[in-house]
Amino acid sequence: MRNLFLFFFSIILLFSCSESKVVKIAGSSTVLPVISQAAEQFRLKHPNIRIIVNAGGSGVGVNQIGEGKLDIGMISRELAQSEIDRYPNTAFQTHDIGRDAVVPVVSSEIYDAGIQALTLAQIGDIYKGDIRNWQALSGPDREILVLDKESSRGTRHVFMSAVFNDKNAAAPGADLVLGSNNEEQTAIVQSDGAIGMLSHAWFNADVKGLSIILADNKAISPTLENIRSSAFPIVRALSLVTNGQPEGDVKLFIDFLLSDTGQQIVEDNGYVRIR
Amino acid sequence: MVMSASARVGKSYVFMSIIISTAIILLILTFLLINSWQAISEIGWGVFSSEWHPAAGKFGILAMIYGSVAVMIIALTIAIPLGIMTAVFTAEVLPAKYRFYVKSMLELLAGIPSIIYGLIGIVFLSVWIEDFFALQSGRTILAGGILLAIMVLPTVITLSDDALHNVPAKYREAARGLGLYPYEVLKSAVLPHAVNDIAGALLLALGRVLGETMAVMLVIGSIDRIPVPFLNTLLPGQTITSKLGREIAETAFGSLEFSALIFMGLLLLVFVLAFTILAQTFFYQPEQRLYE
Q: Which of the listed CATH numbers 3.10.20.310, 3.40.50.1980, 3.40.190.10, 3.30.499.10 matches domain A20-99+237-273?
């Protein structure tokens, strides 16, 4: 009995020892696939460092860095001044690891019916609720299922800034509010008349990215080249945020992401490398 | 009176347990009250409006209250009759040897994590509702209600079954001896004795319906809007819990938005408490414990 007790005690001790080598990461679900894949490869090189990756959204990443619950936050938008003011004792440091576009996406049925490019004003009208049927945009006679995102999501901030010039703009035309890219992707796949906002990396056979028609009537499609050159109007940086200069394991991991291997992971996930 | 050492230990253990459980409830209440005070004092009656837009300083929670109440009514309307009838079957009709298997399966169902129910809701239930009613999207208040009904059914059934089963056999025998039909035995002898415990089962179900977060969050659509027309549950909505689930982690601790969210939590707790007290006064029967 005593031996058993000692055995369990030593196991607990063992786990609490390794606890000191944990790097906790959470935040944007856009950055998440890159980081979780990088974490796997990083562990092959540094088996004694444990990395715990969670989603939650950019807002969660920033808040939990401010509250000291994380080592690295993932964000897919700029830090807001209000967030910097909210945590005066936190020295936020951002580290860009890649670039991405936020693209208005539609169900493949709508794309195939001919709606492949819209102006930002048209997208704005859909989200304001002024356009309720695809017919108004010379599409099929089908109601538009307008998908909005949780208000703290980085993707929404970037999208709304581009469409309404206000990252917190309300969307009275919205039908559903969703969270992660994953959830949004599922909803678009399940519908035959949906429009939403997704990161460039989340397209598939049923989720099609629209081109955006600029003021000079030129349609810019969301291709890697157009994102790299910032010709596509809704591009953003994917970043990590830390409290102060990164040190130790955290620095090792960020350097790994900026290395050639790390940047290759960024590219493999459908984003644009920065180095 | 002299007590043995073990009796004293036992007594203080029981006493401690009571104090700890009471303290936990009081702590939660105080925590909710303190943290929602900012919202109560700064927004006041403004919280009972229908627009929620924190960036513009609007914190109306009516849509969430509507959603919670609507989902509760739908879920309980389905789960109560279905659950009690099934319990009557398992406790009174089903031979004892099968009852064990049925009950084990039901208790297994009660232990499935809610996220699993949520995923089933997204993949099947909401798609069925979308097709059946020819809707734009099946993520509706109705989907949330039905999903919750399925989730609380095992609780209702297994606890009601226990309640019926606990009624001593002598009451049934006496009733049968009077020449009553099986249906009359159930109605006049068994159910009146079990009603108190069945009410307890329903209260637990009510608590779960109002408190369930993950599954509802995935299927309800999460839009802070009261349907037009008012009773159309085939539209997306939001419950208090789905709102909390989606927003609380992203809100800064101590902000007005956080406080408003906590206030919703407080409302939910008060609501459940009120129901519990009501039910207890309503079903209270002096000397009702007939089991020996």
A: 3.40.190.10
User: Chain A within 8 Å of B252 (Cβ-Cβ)?
Assistant: yes
> pLDDT tens digits for A154-168?
899 999 999 999 988
A63 neighbourhood in chain B, CB within 8 Å: 249-253
- Considering CB atoms only, which of B137, B247, B255 is closest to A175? B137
pLDDT, tens only, B149-202: 999 999 999 999 999 998 988 888 999 999 999 899 999 889 988 888 898 889
Q: Closest Cα to residue A157, out of B257, B260, B247, B55?
A: B55
Identify the H or E element spanning A121. Answer: helix A120-128
* Residue found under tokens 């601790």: B253
Q: What is the CA radius of gyration of chain A?
A: 21
B223 CB neighbours in chain A (<8 A) are 148, 174-177
Q: What is the mean pLDDT of chain A?
A: 88
Residues of B in contact with A193 (CB under 8 A): 136
Domain residue spans of chain A: 20-99+237-273, 101-228
Residue whose pair of structure tokens reads 């944007």 in the numeric block: A28
The model's pLDDT over A237-274, given as tens digits with 9 standing for 90+, comes to 999 999 999 988 999 999 999 999 999 999 888 888 88
Chain A closest-CA separation from residue B221 CA (Å): 5
Which of A168, A176, A187 shows the shortest C-beta gap to B55? A168
- Which class is domain B24-283? mainly alpha
pLDDT at residue A129, as a whole number: 93
Instruction: Output DSSP code: residue B222.
Output: -
The residue among A107, A70, A74 whose CA lies nearest residue A271 is A74
Interchain CB contact of A65 with B (< 8 Å): no
Q: Is the peptide bond before B229 cis (omega within 30 degrees of 0)?
A: yes
CATH class of A101-228: alpha beta
Which phi and psi angles does A213 have, rounded to 5°? -90, 120
Residue A28 backbone phi and psi in degrees, to 5: -50, 130
Q: Which of B 35-94 lie inside 8 A of A, CB atoms? A: 53-56
Structure confidence at residue A16 (pLDDT):
55
| pLDDT tens readout for residues B24-57 | 999 999 999 999 999 999 888 888 888 898 888 8
A113/chain B closest Cα distance in angstroms? 18
* B57 min Cα distance to partner chain A (Å): 12
Least confident of A23-27, A87-91, B2-6: B2-6
Angle at B154 between CA B149 and CA B157, to 5 degrees: 100
Residues of A in contact with B253 (CB under 8 A): 63, 67
ipTM of the complex: 0.80
By the 10 Å C-beta count (0-12 exposed, 13-18 middle, 19+ buried), A116 is classed as middle
